[in-house]
């Protein structure tokens, strides 16, 4: 599903990923590690939002940087939520559905039911609570029945009931054949669903394998302070980004706006 060969990503003098060689199979993969370890950078390289400095990465057998069409088969949720401010949640989901060439009303109804969005879909996004932003951000990843869904910290900063709901949705969609790559510091609820696990630390692969085979290693690793001694050369990948990213402002300049309203991000 995802294959990286000699993959490196630099932001100026800072090396975010270095010599990553890995094959991520279909199913659900947990992408774990300390803050700044390279997880979000790897995700954005796989999505074609960053260009590799060296090496290559393929998603579904294609180069995501050169072949933008591969993104039509992919959904993504970012942390913090990458959402426009001055449109409603309904308008934003409709925009994404149209971009994927699927029926907007059907898709909005589907994800609204999955994540209980209906009560605030017509509200402008800048008036959402943090919980609403989280739910909308995750819901956007499921628009268009993608083959692969990337979720960055889907279980962070939400209550227990919401954790159970999101894990249930992931389980149901996985059963239908959807593959997932999930970045999470709260990984225990997802471990029973996981097929594969990767730990990135200091921009390198620290541990990788079938989830069942590495379960004990994961538990021991995160109970100990082994990773805490491997401080990454990147303290905040997102702030080091010097390239335009379709997950951020460059994409929002294209979203629908109400008549007479200027672009503001």
Automatic annotation (TrEMBL):
Domain ABC transporter, chain residue ranges per copy: 2-227
Keywords: ATP-binding, Nucleotide-binding, Transport
Tree of life domain: Archaea
InterPro entries referenced in this protein's UniProt entry, alphabetically: AAA+_ATPase, ABC_transporter-like_ATP-bd, ABC_transporter-like_CS, ABC_Transporter_VariousFunc, P-loop_NTPase
A molecular function (GO) term: ATP binding
Compositional bias ranges of the Basic residues kind: 255-265
Basic and acidic residues compositional bias, start-end: 229-244
Region ranges (Disordered): 229-265
Pfam families per record: ABC_tran
Protein known as: ABC transporter
Native organism: Thermococcus guaymasensis DSM 11113
The organism's taxonomic lineage, starting at the top: Archaea, Methanobacteriati, Methanobacteriota, Thermococci, Thermococcales
């Amino acid at each position: 599903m995802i294959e990286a060969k000699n993959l490196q990503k630099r932001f100026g003098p800072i090396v975010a990923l270095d010599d990553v060689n890995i094959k991520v199979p279909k199913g659900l993969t947990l992408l774990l590690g300390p803050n700044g370890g390279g997880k979000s950078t790897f995700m954005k390289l796989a999505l074609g939002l960053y260009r590799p400095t060296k090496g290559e990465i393929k998603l579904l057998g294609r180069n995501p940087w050169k072949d933008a069409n591969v993104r039509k088969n992919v959904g993504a949720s970012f942390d913090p939520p990458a959402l426009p401010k001055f449109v409603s949640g309904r308008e934003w989901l409709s925009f994404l559905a149209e971009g994927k060439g699927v029926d907007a009303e059907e898709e909005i109804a589907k994800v609204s039911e999955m994540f209980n969005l209906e009560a605030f879909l017509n509200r402008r996004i800048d008036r959402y609570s943090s919980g609403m932003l989280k739910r909308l951000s995750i819901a956007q990843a499921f628009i268009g029945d993608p083959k692969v869904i990337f979720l960055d910290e889907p279980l962070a900063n939400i209550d227990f009931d919401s954790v159970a709901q999101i894990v249930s949705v992931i389980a149901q969609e996985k059963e239908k054949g959807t593959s997932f790559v999930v970045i999470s510091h709260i990984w225990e609820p997802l471990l029973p669903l996981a097929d594969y696990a990767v730990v990135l630390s200091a921009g390198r692969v620290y541990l990788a394998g079938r989830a069942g085979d590495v379960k004990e290693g994961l538990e021991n690793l995160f109970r100990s302070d082994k990773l805490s001694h491997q401080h990454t050369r990147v303290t905040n990948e997102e702030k080091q980004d010097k390239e335009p990213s379709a997950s951020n402002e460059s994409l929002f300049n294209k979203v629908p706006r109400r008549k007479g309203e200027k672009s503001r991000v």
